[in-house]
Amino acid sequence: MVSLMSRGFSEPQENAMTPTDLPAACGDAPEGSPAAILDTEEGLDRVMGNRALYARMLRRFRAEYEGFSAALGVVLGAGETERAKRQAHTLKGAAGMIGACRVHQQAGALEDAIGGVAGAGLWQPELAKLDRELGLALRALDGALGDKSGPGAIG
């Protein structure tokens, strides 16, 4: 059998960061700071500084996740927990990619709450928290995309 090493691949590092891990800046950003809501520096790092690509990602996130919380509430209210978990997981990944740290964290908490549903309504507080964080992130996106001169300007 040919080993991974002889084919030019290395063994995975035990502590290697995976794409779904939170960047350190998310946890380090002071509560209420713009970077705690939308860390544009982290988002740009994820796309190797390609501002045009990052701006497209922000616009797409903005378009796709406006009204997300209400739509997810309908899905959960209908008892479609697997679908809701997938949607929360997708939001978690998208938020992580653009640097929306708190949305990433809260979408993960909601995903966990949906998975642990033992009775009706256990996901509702987590969805309310997600709705708040997502609203803040969407407003931050508007600022990042609309202000062409500020330090967080992207668009």
Automatic annotation (TrEMBL):
Residues 1-32 are annotated as: Disordered. GO terms for biological process: phosphorelay signal transduction system. Pfam families: Hpt. GO terms for molecular function: protein kinase activity. Signal peptide: none annotated. The modification Phosphohistidine is found at H89. Residues 50-144 form the HPt domain. Keywords: Phosphoprotein, Two-component regulatory system. InterPro entries: HPT_dom_sf, Sig_transdc_His_kin_Hpt_dom. This is Hpt domain-containing protein. It comes from Massilia glaciei.
